[in-house]
Amino acid sequence: MKFTKEQAFEKLKAILTNDGKKPLRMSEQSINKQLDTLMPLIASDETELDDFVEKVKPSFETMNGNAEKDRSDFIEDWKKKHPEQQQQQQQQQTKSDNPEVQALMDRVAELEKDKKENATKAAIAAKKSELLTKLKEKGITDKDWCNAMVNEISLDENTDVDAKATNLLNLYNKNKSTYTPKTPGSPSAGVDKDEFEDVRDARKQELGIKDGQ
Predict the structure, then answer these.
(1) Mean per-residue pLDDT, 92-110
(2) Which of 97, 114, 169, 206 has the largest CB neighbor count within 10 A?
């Protein structure tokens, strides 16, 4: 053959990296091993370098592409399994050596945080309003009871209002069948604090609070 393995290696490496403009994904050791296998099979004493490279180039491009995909899949899988570390890396990458720029970036981050918190509060307020409407639709006319219970339970922007309303209706009916009506103006009139026991017990379990705390 009219070329050496080193010449074939350099030619192929230049092709796979677009003359150094992009990284080589398959290892140099893999390229050399493949050349050791292919050169005796494809090249003869009269084979020119360009002819040999043209014949084997598709095989090397496929292997390099597979190595790129394996790398991408590994990185994507790592990001999914380590979201906290990924977020820390992103925060570190956004740091600036310029104090004024960094102060501005910190201010923007703070505004974004406030915006997110306000959006969450607004969503929870909307859920509370929606839940109160649902309770009224289900026939619960005791506004004080409804307001007290809605403020007592845990809500977030993903709360299933229909499910919560059904649970509260069941609790309301249970309390109605258990407790005697209070006369207006009596010390015990209004919502009996014991009516909240079921909700409070569930809330304690949710927060991991033991009795007596």
Answers:
(1) 72
(2) 169
